[in-house]
Amino acid sequence: MSEQDREREEFLRVARTARDAAAGLAPLPRAAKDAALHAIADALVDGAARIVKANETDVARARENGTPEYMIDRLSLSAERIAAIAEAVREVAALPDPVGETVRGNVLPNGLELRQVRVPLGVVGIIYEGRPNVTVDAAALCLKSGNVAMLRGSSSAYESNSVLVTVMQEALRGTDVPADAVQLVPGTSRDSVKHLMRARGLVDVLIPRGGASLINSVVEESTVPVIETGVGNCSVYVDAAADLDTALDILVNSKTQRPSVCNAAETFLVHADVADEFVPRALAALKEKGVTVHGDERIRSFDGDVVEATEDDWYAEYLSLDIAARVVGSLDDAVAHIRRYGSGHTEAIVTTSQSAARRFTALVDSAAVMVNASTRFTDGGEFGFGAEIGISTQKLHARGPMGLPELTSTKYVVTGDGHLRGA
Amino acid sequence: MSEQDREREEFLRVARTARDAAAGLAPLPRAAKDAALHAIADALVDGAARIVKANETDVARARENGTPEYMIDRLSLSAERIAAIAEAVREVAALPDPVGETVRGNVLPNGLELRQVRVPLGVVGIIYEGRPNVTVDAAALCLKSGNVAMLRGSSSAYESNSVLVTVMQEALRGTDVPADAVQLVPGTSRDSVKHLMRARGLVDVLIPRGGASLINSVVEESTVPVIETGVGNCSVYVDAAADLDTALDILVNSKTQRPSVCNAAETFLVHADVADEFVPRALAALKEKGVTVHGDERIRSFDGDVVEATEDDWYAEYLSLDIAARVVGSLDDAVAHIRRYGSGHTEAIVTTSQSAARRFTALVDSAAVMVNASTRFTDGGEFGFGAEIGISTQKLHARGPMGLPELTSTKYVVTGDGHLRGA
């Protein structure tokens, strides 16, 4: 057997184990799942030294490879960070259990009782980058929602992830939850991702968490259904009827409060009627925060430091202190710009006009539309979901921040007393 | 330009037209959509002669090709059938509009108003077989839910479908709904399906309606998200605690009331404790209805006419007067059989035991689980949805009968008065 075949066999073995564990996990009541989550949290704290030691191997290799310092920081674990990760697991335990919730229910005219109830998805594959905290977060959210997690983190964190999963599995052995309910995809090769993407029938959904290129390649190659997450080219539109102080605050907050995340603004659009008054103030405020503005001709006419915007800038998810800027002739022109270049994540309008707010929210087709609020609010925590597995930018199944209910499907339970169909 | 390139260009032109139409259709209120549906219904009745003429071309070609009579029947249109199709369009107009419904809403601790509202999916691609009534049904359901339909029917019905779409587009010209809101995928080649499956970014979802091989090939090749529909290997489990008269009625109804549809039973499982009493009665009743039973050794011991069941029989979706039959040692064995061989559509238990019903509904992971009712009830009409675009057998987005709400996504509308994020 070739090395490739061997790896594929090993993947299938793990995936079938996951499938069986899913059958055992799905019907467990909340108390059993919460007890298991607390056991995991305890085991992480107890195993901190062992986890840190494995992590040091990953970190040392990353340094040898010349990995940039901000990525080393994401990769690094300490006893303190592990304690925080364990605390997050306890917070997941405290959330309500979505499984079993009756989504709708009624008695049909013929007397059949119809109930649509939430059930786990089954086996959830998660593909993510070099942040070992995601290994635990994702496993905890999946477990709470009755799903088995098949985790495929970055190869740069493989040692850390292996130990984290081992510690979690060991913790589960003393609980009612099957130890196999948390699984690491074996191997670090490119093929191991491929196996996961082709495991239709064994894996129920794939959630890639990472940059646009990772997500695109998963969508292209996967036969398992995919939930796209997290690419955000968000925009702030300053309407003709905006309160300009409010607009300035929202623009600066949306761009600079945390520029590296998907709900940070990457574009601002300003109505021509207020451009002369607003743009100079905006450019000054952004400059003060260290932001480089990539503007159209009109924006550039206000300040020689504005860089010329190219077509690529309108599409860009900078994730840095850069923003694209354009003057538009109308609200509808702003909507047309967003429709063409946006990623469907979050768009904000700043306006005092009720009719402008109504039209913008009706016409903009994004996961979240903000009226007089920062784009940074699109977040499971801010929305009160208690936890978030990602922010979906697709329209099927889940859109926007995904909490525990978004990790479930439903089934219909129909109860009769010998009902037969006539026609 | 090669013929292939030309066809691809033509497809992209139509798809972009559909995308633009979707932007115009999405914000329209119910009254505009209902008026358009009534205009379509009127136009179908008025255009019946023209539609029947085009249909005659398809039917004549199908006869030349030696198409079986039951398929010719599905393909054929008459003035009477067209009137019934038009009536179904009026019934869709009478259904509530799912778009704009607030799915959840609350005020966050910081005063932000959060609303999750239903919005159309956008452009919905439908791939289906030689039933021209689906052309109109699917277009009407999409239009009512604010979606543009991109229709790709069987090439055998291309003339009929072309005229039906033309008649619908002409009808829309006198309404507020864009005429391009109903589109036929151009061409009849295999490539034209491929273009649809690769139109990610232009088409929001694909719904294949047809046999397992069509659905599998779409899932394999599509980069557009797919909703799988309609493959049903449904089973009836007769529990040790079943009322056997009820069990007999449900088994016969599930199998024979309409054998050609996806919610007909294809397997029956009977608990060993009642096999001696139940199986002979079941075999006699099924024989009387002309059903061929494919049984395991125990079932065959009751009647020499029972055919030996192979592994393939347990997986089979016969859609005919055939059924696979097996004696199981326990309810859990029945569940294990279903988990291994079922298609996740509908399973029924017949039992008088509350605990057996509770365990079966908890453990069986199918779109619908019936207790003391025929599998034939899994149907959008029976469930009171008023209409059905298909029955989803996948877990993502929609599961079970899909009505109008299942043709929508949601977006979050968040309203503040200058809210900024602090941390």
Question: How would you portray this structure in words?
Answer:
Chains A, B: This is Gamma-glutamyl phosphate reductase. Chains A, B: Catalyzes the NADPH-dependent reduction of L-glutamate 5-phosphate into L-glutamate 5-semialdehyde and phosphate. The product spontaneously undergoes cyclization to form 1-pyrroline-5-carboxylate. Chains A, B: Pathway: Amino-acid biosynthesis; L-proline biosynthesis; L-glutamate 5-semialdehyde from L-glutamate: step 2/2. Chains A, B: InterPro entries: Ald_DH/histidinol_DH, Ald_DH_C, Ald_DH_N, Aldehyde_DH_dom, G-glutamylP_reductase_CS, Glu-5-SA_DH, GPR_dom. The structure is a homodimer of 423-residue chains. The first copy, chain A, has 423 residues and is α/β, with parallel strands linked by helices. Chain A contains 15 helices and 16 strands. Chain A has two domains: 239 residues, 3-Layer(aba) Sandwich (Aldehyde Dehydrogenase, Chain A, domain 1); 144 residues, Aldehyde Dehydrogenase, Chain A, domain 2, CATH 3.40.309.10. In chain A, strands 10-9-11-8-7-12-13 form a seven-stranded parallel sheet, sandwiched between helices. In chain A, strands 5-4-3-6 form a four-stranded parallel sheet, sandwiched between helices. In chain A, helix 1 packs across helix 8 and helix 2 runs antiparallel to helix 5. The radius of gyration of chain A is 24 Å and the shape is globular. Chain A starts with a helix and ends with a strand. At the A-B interface, strand 2, helix 10, helix 15, strand 13 and strand 16 of A face strand 2, helix 10, helix 15, strand 13 and strand 16 of B. Strand 16 of chain A pairs parallel with strand 13 of chain B, so a sheet runs across the interface.
